[in-house]
Amino acid sequence: MNTKENKSRSNKKRPSKKTQKTPDTEFASLGLNPKVLARLDKLGYKKPSPIQEQFIPIALTGRDVTGQAQTGTGKTAAFGLPILEQMDPRLPGLQAIILTPTRELSEQVSNELERLGPKSLKMAVLVGGRPIRKQIRDLENGAQMVVGTPGRVIDLLFRKDLVLDQVKFVVLDEADRMLDIGFRPDIEKIMKRCPEQRQTLLLSATMSSEVERLAKRYMIDPDRVDLSEKDVANKSIQQFYISVDADRKISLMAKFLLQERPQQVLVFTRTKRGAERLYKTFAKKLKNIAVIHGDLAQPKRDSVIKEFRGGKTRMLIATDVVGRGIDISGISHIINYDVPEFCDDYVHRIGRAGRLSSVGKGQAITFVTREQGSQLTEIEKRINMLLDEYEIKDFQPVRPRPPKNY
């Protein structure tokens, strides 16, 4: 479906609001109906986050909307609440599809929407690494909302177990990351299977040119909510760098952990091999440590996330692919053991610390070798701020340069 075809889609009008007493919550000013407000009140939702405050009223009108905001700012509720309000709970069959980049994020989004939605809501989570038969049964039993990764969604479409003919709402969550890991062809195939008469919502921490092209192709004159234009990285997180020789990074991390004694720390590496190597080194010395990456079987990944979320694991070593699905409020520190390959990945990584309802102000530390100075500069340009240098007591992470012979 091209842009010209899209322009034939008409925008929906805001649903009429029922006149009855609503709970005393700031969400009441956003146009949500009393039943939704009552559920929010019961769950303890009182004050909408900035992305929720701006995104929800527009989405309730039925218009297409793009939302750019830092990670950990409540984007799931921002797109989920308008969809849940506009869906007809009495209508069988699929009404909404939400695409995310990872299995963990799909399950996290599904859990949140089940909390926010009515008990009668029928949900299906379509991700790889899970028994496909159960997912097919959930679809056959009349799933009204699907959350999944593009790969498994495409698989079920080709099997003809998933039909999108009646879909009214499409969400591209973490759109930048889905494009980063090569899901663009799958996304386009899925979008072309959806009806022209639909509402499309796109959420992203960053709005790259590729994300902009995707929005232009599959959305109709979308309203834009941009909360990241000036401050790309969350300024509530203290951000530092440490200059270090490559062969001293393990010693540096040990010293940092002793000095900071973090409540819960997430360590990022660039590669799966690097994550495993780092895990094996520290597992000999520390308890409550785990590793997660794409080569682990799904049940193992689920177990790792569950124990980290429950606080049983204090240090988790992860690659970027699965790091996107880790949304845990107790993370106090992020360590970029390896400088991220892309500047936007830095934004996503540090967004894991100091999240909504978190323990407080988080810290993010990036290990930088001499050869990576230019990469640090690019990160600082991207986030529009200079990182302070972190000091480690009684340790020299960088060897003094030998004097030149004249």
Automatic annotation (TrEMBL):
Alphabetical UniProt keywords: ATP-binding, Helicase, Hydrolase, Nucleotide-binding
Enzyme Commission number, as recorded: 3.6.4.13
Every Helicase ATP-binding domain range: 56-225
Broad class of enzyme this protein falls into: hydrolase
All residue ranges annotated as the DEAD-box RNA helicase Q domain in the record: 25-53
PROSITE patterns given in the database record: DEAD_ATP_HELICASE, HELICASE_ATP_BIND_1, HELICASE_CTER, Q_MOTIF
InterPro entries xrefs: DEAD/DEAH_box_helicase_dom, DEAD/DEAH_RhlB, DEAD_box_RNA_helicase, Helicase_ATP-bd, Helicase_C-like, P-loop_NTPase, RNA-helicase_DEAD-box_CS, RNA_helicase_DEAD_Q_motif
Organism: Polystyrenella longa
Motif segment (Q motif): 25-53
Protein name as annotated: DEAD-box ATP-dependent RNA helicase CshA
Region (Disordered): 1-28
Pfam families: DEAD, Helicase_C
Family of the protein in this entry: Belongs to the DEAD box helicase family.
Molecular function via GO: ATP binding; hydrolase activity; nucleic acid binding; RNA helicase activity
Biased composition (Basic residues): 9-20
